[in-house]
Amino acid sequence: MVPVSHIVLLSTALFFIGMYGFLTRKNLITMLMAIELMLNSVNINFVAFNKYLYPGKLDGVFFSIFIIAIAAAEAAVAIAIIINLYRSHKTIDVDAASELKN
């Protein structure tokens, strides 16, 4: 059985990798993938703490399924925004699109 500290360490590493990817990338697709990585690290925490604190209940799993559904809706809306941005500015680079706006 894997100790909860290892799972929390993995989840923390994934979250900060996602945060680094979100803050340093200029491409909207990679920023979207970084947000998905952060949401998945939260899902790992929900499932791990549910297993160790309340093994008979499925509350953490239900929260994870809810987050996955929200992430799917967020991805659909974000891709629609990215397509609209590409049609209007012919780029998905965040800095280039903000320069074209001015």
Keywords:
102 residues; Helix Hairpins; elongated
List the helices and strands and how they pair.
Blueprint: H1 4-24, H2 28-53, H3 59-89, H4 94-101
Helix pairs in contact: 1-2, 2-3
Number of H- or I-type helical stretches: 4
Radius of gyration: 17 Å
Which CATH top level class fits? Answer: Mainly Alpha
Number of strands: 0
Sheet bearing the most strands, described? none
Instruction: Give the domain tally.
Output: 1
Structural class by SSE content:
mainly alpha
Question: Helical proportion?
Answer: over 70%
Q: What is the second-level CATH architecture?
A: Orthogonal Bundle
Q: Span between N and C termini?
A: 56 Å
- Residues in β-strands, percent: under 5%
| Shape estimate | elongated
Order of helices and strands: HHHH
What does this protein look like?
With 102 residues, the protein is mostly helical. The protein has one domain: Orthogonal Bundle (Helix Hairpins), CATH 1.10.287. It is 84% helix and 0% strand. The chain is built from four helices and no strands. The chain has helices at 4-24, 28-53, 59-89, 94-101. Helix 1 (4-24) runs antiparallel to helix 2 (28-53) and helix 2 runs antiparallel to helix 3. The longest helix is centred in the C-terminal third of the chain and has 31 residues, at 59-89. The N and C termini lie far apart (56 Å). The model has no long low-confidence stretch (mean pLDDT 89).
